[in-house]
Amino acid sequence: MTYQPPFKRDPGPSSxxxxxxxxxxPSTHDLPPPPAYHLPxxxxxxxxxxxxxxxxxxxxxTYYRPAPIGCDLSYGFERRTERDEEVDEHLDGLCESLExxxxxxxxxxxxxxxxxxxxxxxxxxxxxxxxDRDGWxxxxxxxxxxxxxxxxxPSEARARKRQQESSWAxxxxxxxxxxxxxxxxxxxxxxxxxxKGWGGDVNTNVQWCNVIRSAIGEIPLCLGGEVDCVRSEIGxxxxxxxxxxxxxxxxxIENERQDAVFHKKLLKHxxxxxxxxxxxxxxxxxxxxxxxxxxxxxxxxSIPRFIAALPNPPWSTPPALHFLHxxxxxxxxxxxxxxxxxxxxxxxxxxxxxLPPATVWRxxxxxxxxxxxxxxx
Length: 377
Ligand code: 0WD
Ligand code: CA
Known about the structure:
Elements: E1 19-23, E2 41-48, E3 54-55, E4 62-64, H1 92-103, E5 115-118, H2 119-127, E6 136-143, E7 146-151, H3 155-167, H4 169-182, E8 183-185, E9 207-216, E10 219-226, E11 229-230, E12 244-251, H5 256-276, E13 280-286, E14 292-299, H6 303-308, H7 317-335, H8 340-343, E15 361-366, E16 370-375
Parallel strand pairs: 5-7, 5-10, 12-13
Antiparallel strand pairs: 1-16, 2-3, 2-9, 4-8, 6-7, 6-15, 9-10, 11-12, 13-14, 15-16
Helix pairs in contact: 2-5, 2-7
The structure holds ligand 0WD and calcium ion.
Residues 228, 246-248 line the site of calcium ion.
């Protein structure tokens, strides 16, 4: 069952563009039970190495080891290496890994009938009913029976974001430093000169990605996302999603307002981990100087119950799941039929070496309003 948009979809000014509008679901009561999000199943994993190249294995997987309380999360800041954000990788790593899976005959139709994207895109759609500040835009195209969805980040917006980020460079670095203090790689040896617990200098090129298959209601999903580490013996092979872990940092909570802000943030943490099937989130709390003061473990699946038990819960899961299902229904309904392999079946034989022109769609979210879907070419 899906929620019924309370008012008719606005067709928009027809002379300009045909727009399909979907309003946000009511965030309070009276929603029917939401469509189920299926338990994610692992398809494959891959690693980005220090030079950002891809290795189709678990080279970049790390093992959890609790960060020492009192460690300094600004440690190593001057020695960090950052990924070149100028390079737009689109869905490259995910597509490359799916191609490999199919080539090796391990595929189970990941590329048919649903949506293929980064987990981060689905997190954004799912949390949109409770987002009152940041809008976003995505691009959708259909190819070979699936919809590919990616962030649309025009260069001005990206430049603005980078500028904002540069003033937050140290704060965001502290998140990576917490990861380093909380993990060790397969071949790690504690360096004599490094501080206690340090897992190695930060290089944001390095990522370990998991590719999963799931579904929201009847809509298949294939998602790729970064996983921080696993809870298993150092050097052991990947034990599977049930042992994965997400790491987060937060300022220490000293008053009710900060507590309320953290409860709001837990929506994004929950959605991000839930979507990929990561069962545990470890949050490190730091002071203004970047010293780790405490940490707390959250079971991903318990977070919604914890929030529901608060006197004024800032969010709940039904609007998020309804909205995700409604948005992806809208996208698959309109975008899938524009698959060039459906509209121009004669190009099918040449698809291996030359992609046919695809119809490009834009999905645009305006906070507190809803999403619009329209064709841009
Ligand atoms: O705008 C782009 N081109 C994006 C690229 C947006 C989102 C993701 N990506 C890429 C990432 O580089 C990565 O290879 O997609 C892949 C996986 O992304 P995801 O797991 O779907 O991303 P998300 O769930 O938004 O974030 C997970 C982590 C973040 O950790 P925290 O703890 O802050 O949630 O991925 C990292 C970040 O560490 N991350 C990125 N790293 C480099 N470039 C980016 C990015 N643009 N976005 C997130
Ligand atoms: Ca993280």
